[in-house]
């Protein structure tokens, strides 16, 4: 049986180090916001080529706190509209709602599954203040176009990078997005102040042994505000400057992440190499493979194929001992939680949700397992 994701196997190589760290943690007796969180924040900021990282409770909170901080700083107001992809994990949309902002859905491109930049401008109104690109499955959105739109309409960009640790986008021209015509109020759309939300949920490319998240940014004001907000709005104990929340990256989870972070590049390379094999060797005409032309650094959080007979393929693979998953079976606008949206129609999003299937892909999959998956897929005739 090839499991979709064997978390025990993924974390096994780190067990001795985890145990050692846990003993040190016990000996020290410091449980909240200590050296481990501090070290992780420094190292993860540098891993992301960014200036600041603030560890928070989870990926959802990372997004919510970015929006709340922009509200505190006066860049956003309650009721402002945020452009979000219709095709995403519901957390992206819930984050906008939890910050009292209004999500405006935009269809994806069928090829990339990511937001279609060509459809964004039609959804921009005088109330639009931000774009939330979600780098789904580990592939960065078309950021050059998105940044251009944001600059033109004076919008913030908040990236949901919960599936994209280590992914990057090769800009055609570095100088294209410098701050030539921008006042400091518009600082945040600059390419060099990229603000990203990460999740370290166990199944992500960098996962801890529980919940965890982080905000990464070059915007000092934003980082400082989120640092307060995550900790009851306080910098100095019992002095509360803002109405904050309790959403701190757990010290023990940070300790585990410090052990795993140095291996993230290797994990991503392994994933990319398996993805290359899938892309080169799966040749069943009934199966649509994910688009990747190699230009940008895709980290293949998920390898998502598409077929009209998705449910049939899923049970066929299961009968051959290959476990798969669906990311995701129901689009956000059709979820019961989003009753007001249920009547809306986003045909490309709906088609994707009806046809996608995620193959096993992670750092502990063996060559033989990869070969078996390819062989079984190529042998499928529906
Ligand atoms: C996992 C995920 C989140 C939320 O992260 P949590 O840590 O589970 O809160 C947000 N957006 C996307 C796209 C995700 O995949």
UniProtKB/TrEMBL annotation:
It comes from Flavobacterium haoranii. GO terms for molecular function: pyridoxal phosphate binding; transaminase activity. Pfam families: DegT_DnrJ_EryC1. Belongs to the DegT/DnrJ/EryC1 family. This is dTDP-4-amino-4,6-dideoxygalactose transaminase. GO terms for biological process: polysaccharide biosynthetic process. The active site is at residue 204. Transmembrane segments: none annotated. The modification N6-(pyridoxal phosphate)lysine is found at residue 204. PANTHER family: 3-OXO-GLUCOSE-6-PHOSPHATE:GLUTAMATE AMINOTRANSFERASE (PTHR30244:SF36), TRANSAMINASE (PTHR30244). The lineage of its organism: Bacteria, Pseudomonadati, Bacteroidota, Flavobacteriia, Flavobacteriales. InterPro entries: DegT/StrS_aminotransferase, PyrdxlP-dep_Trfase, PyrdxlP-dep_Trfase_major, PyrdxlP-dep_Trfase_small. The keyword Methyltransferase does not apply. Keywords: Pyridoxal phosphate.
